[in-house]
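Treating backbone geometry as a discrete language has practical consequences that deserve illustration. Part of our work consisted of pairing the sequence of a single chain with a tokenised description of its backbone. We regard such an encoding as a compact summary of how the chain folds. The amino acid sequence and the backbone structure tokens for this protein are reproduced below.
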Amino acid sequence: QVQIVESGGGLAQPGGSLRLTCSASGFTFSSAIMTWLRQAPGKELEWVSEIFSRGTYTFYADSVKGRFTISRDNANNTVWLQMNDLKPEDTAVYYCAKGRAGPRGQGTQVTVSS
């Protein structure tokens, strides 16, 4: 079955960086669009970024554009989200998902605070 596991979250200071990792299995990873989503306390789930199957195309929410970078390694069924210049408003649980509305992992907490 589909398994998606996120890791790499934690506490960062404003202006700092974190790199999230998503490991996936149970489906043809190299054919799938992969997506990062996040949910802040008391807010709805928000789309953050996505990467097409070969990594040729990437898209970002305006709120993270220029600060976050999504990438993937199809040989190892892995997707990353490099997050730079973090802001307190980036605090959320971050989820990796198959496709735009497919199954996702349990999430990893990112907290940005001084």
